[in-house]
Design a protein that fits this description.
By secondary structure, the chain is mostly helical. It has a domain of 53 residues. The protein has 4 helices and 2 strands. Strands 1-2 form a two-stranded antiparallel ribbon. It is globular. The N and C termini lie far apart (45 Å).
Length: 95
Amino acid sequence: MACFIFCKVIEIPNDILEDADASKVTELQINDELKLFVIGKEDIILVRLRACINWKSTSDCECGKRMFLLHYEHLDIEYMKEISKKDLTVNLLEQ
């Protein structure tokens, strides 16, 4: 068993990459035996927007907006619009 000290908090809600575009997933090799798969920025933001709307989570609203503005120039906006239309977060995304 390996022990790590991280300077940042890592949220690991599930061991299955649900609702994430596989082409945007980044694989990080931690050591010879351990890999970490990270969903794309777009999917992280979309998860926050869903939490904002569905759970009325103000912290997720703020986090999603902050991440969107911080990474705007590098986001696949068309992908985000397509997904947000399906999950009914398009109005929030367009604000």
